[in-house]
Amino acid sequence: MHSMYALERLVSGLPILTAPVEGTAAVTVMVFAKAGSRYEKDSERGISHFLEHMFFKGGNKFKTTEEVSAAIDGVGGDFNAFTGKEYAGYYVKVSADQTELACDVLSDMLLHASFPPEEIDKERGVIMEEERMYQDTPMYRAGWDFEELLFGDHPLGWDTIGTEKVIKSVQQKDFKKHRDALYGPKSCVLTFAGKVTPEESLAYAKRFFDPLAGGQDHTFEPLTKFGPERIFLREKNTEQAHLVLGVPGISSLDSDHFVHKILAIILGGNMSSRMFLRIREAKGLCYYISTETDNYLDAGALSTRAGVDQSRLDEAISSIIHEYLLCAKEGVTEEELKRAKDFLKGKITLSMEDCEERAHFYGKQQLLYPHVRDIPDYFQEIDAVTKERVDALAKKLLKQEELRLVVIGKDGNKTRFEKLLRA
Prior knowledge:
By secondary structure, the chain is an alpha+beta fold. The protein has two domains: 6-209, Cytochrome Bc1 Complex, Chain A, domain 1 (2-Layer Sandwich), CATH 3.30.830.10; 231-422, 2-Layer Sandwich (Cytochrome Bc1 Complex, Chain A, domain 1), CATH 3.30.830. Helices cover 45% and strands 19% of the residues. The protein has 16 helices and eleven strands. The protein has helices at residues 47-54, 65-73, 99-112, 117-135, 138-151, 164-169, 172-182, 198-209, 257-268, 274-281, 313-330, 334-351, 355-368, 375-383, 387-397, 414-422; strands at 6-9, 15-20, 26-33, 78-83, 88-95, 188-194, 231-235, 240-248, 286-295, 300-309, 404-409. The strands form two sheets. Strands 1-2-6-3-5-4 form a six-stranded mixed beta sheet, with helices on both faces. A five-stranded mixed beta sheet has the order 7-11-8-10-9, with helices on both faces. A hairpin with a 4-residue loop joins strand 4 (78-83) and strand 5 (88-95). Helix 9 crosses helix 12 (334-351). The longest helix has 19 residues, at 117-135. It is globular and about 60 Å long. The model has no long low-confidence stretch (mean pLDDT 95).
């Protein structure tokens, strides 16, 4: 089967990845960068995410946020950005005849963002409000708390919003320095997906992104140990208690990476999963419950999150632990394995119809991993997962002594939860 993507490089070394899509009239142009909270020092916590906001404040050609927005809104396009722990991304999605405009806006941001001091001051308030929104949304907050509990006081455990101290004090020169260090051709990937050919992508890249310079391929501090604590409680007067209960997992480069994904799907990845059927459907304990993996280059997590009635919190925690330990002891069935594989392949197939998802799928791999897996390679990896491998990984990861628990709710009695974890 022929490859579904093509890779070229500019003279600067900037990789240009093209993933054409049949039967779409849209194009997504996306820039990925090795930036994010992993690359921050304690004194810069939150600068990567703040920088993401500032890139949209205007450059040489589109001088203000209004001009950037008007250009994209004027053609009905979408533009957005995200900052994770290991990478950040910026994209514009337009109808294919407006690809040039998408490149114009993105390159102006990347090459010429001016970070006006008065805009920085305004944006401080916006980011503080974003942080308050997360604080007020226990589903999000619990996930952040879990990573902090698991990874400890390490850049991987820090949330991307950062600290109020940094948000309030960071200046124009800090943004310029951070951009110059992290946004060079060696640590970025330019991705085109949709109704576009590799030849067109290369021509656009040369025209708009050739001047991109600076930045070295930089490294981050590896994670050598997990956090020492097992439980974190955040008291909040909520109607529902929100919990995340999980264990250290494996990294995205581990040979069992796909086994990890399949195990999480069987446990709680969909509506036919064990957690959903046995805890939500059979016991009516929660409205939402799901198991997922987080995978970083040198660490990972497997966790189940749920929202439960305060009075049935203990029962929910015990039920989730029961499912973990049962899976470690007895393994999974061949039928569950087949269903989980088909589910994962189906989800990927559906997502690939969207050029934005396709840009993300390939661009992230090109940025972070030693090689890019095409869809057939990816499916081959999924098919290669056996029951023996899933059972072995479940036994290795799902251990009582490795459990970590985060609860946001009315009860801050730690002793009670310690007993549940040990039971």
